[in-house]
Specification:
11 strands; 20% strand; 6-stranded mixed sheet; Purple Acid Phosphatase, chain A, domain 2; 5-stranded mixed sheet
Length: 239
């Protein structure tokens, strides 16, 4: 059973959110987290369960293609609605595919774990973006293009990376939602909601009055973490 403690925001009665941090091609860990979520939901039923994947499904780990296939097969957890957010690594790949003439965009993706992702699809590195786009399954590309940037619920905002301080939440740029670290991480003020995010690897989940960080470095020798939010409480599953 998940151990819950007091949180700094709340969800409406009858709602529970499971938010899963950065997967980075670790399909076995994602499957284990889904099974743990399903067990928790079976043990503690709730009227409305939502599963949010926080982005960065691809790169660095060995099973990016399988992770996307798992998310496409859905529902990942019986009885839970699913929202899949975009991460900066999906943004990098889509940028390379969209602008096949840009060597810089292709190199940026490759320098950030792209080769492992191409191998998972059986796509040769040497082909370049035009060949990558031809060989990556169309349904996988459509999935990546259709990812959401954000989700709001109760007193929480769920985004991949964070938000820029002192900018209204509805005016945040796509770049900041996907990429920001500072000044977001060190800001101690009010963002307008408690921001739940991944993107920045940490040894353990971080709970602060204005944010909750859940990227615990699954592909870097750490664990894959799921934060569990309900009422005015929060808990964690880390595997």
């Amino acid at each position: 059973m998940v151990t819950l403690s007091s949180a700094h925001a709340a969800l409406p009665p009858g709602q529970r959110i499971y938010a899963v941090g950065d997967v980075h091609g670790c399909a076995a860990r994602l499957l284990a987290i889904h099974r743990a979520i399903a067990a928790d939901l079976a043990e503690r039923p709730v009227a409305e369960a939502l599963l949010i994947h926080m982005g960065d499904y691809i790169d660095r780990g060995p099973d990016s293609a399988e992770v996307i296939a798992m998310l496409l097969r859905g529902p990942a957890v019986p009885g839970a609605r699913v929202i899949n957010l975009m991460g900066n690594h999906e943004d990098l790949l889509l940028g390379a595919l969209a602008d096949s003439a840009s060597e810089t965009k292709a190199r940026n993706w490759l320098d950030n774990g792209g080769p492992a992702t191409l191998r998972s699809w059986g796509v040769p590195l040497a082909g370049g973006p035009l060949e990558w786009a031809r060989r990556i399954p169309p349904e996988h590309q459509a999935f990546l293009r259709g990812l959401a940037l954000r989700h709001s619920a109760g007193g929480y905002l769920f985004v991949h990376a964070g938000v820029r301080p002192n900018v209204p939440l509805d005016a945040q740029s796509t770049e900041d939602l996907l990429w920001i670290r500072e000044p977001f991480l060190s800001f101690a003020g009010d963002f307008g909601a408690v921001v739940v995010h991944g993107h920045t690897p940490i040894p353990e989940p971080v709970v602060r009055p204005n944010r909750v960080g859940i990227d615990t470095g699954a592909v870097m020798g750490g664990r894959l973490t799921c934060a569990v939010f309900e009422a005015d409480q929060v808990g964690f599953i880390s595997l």
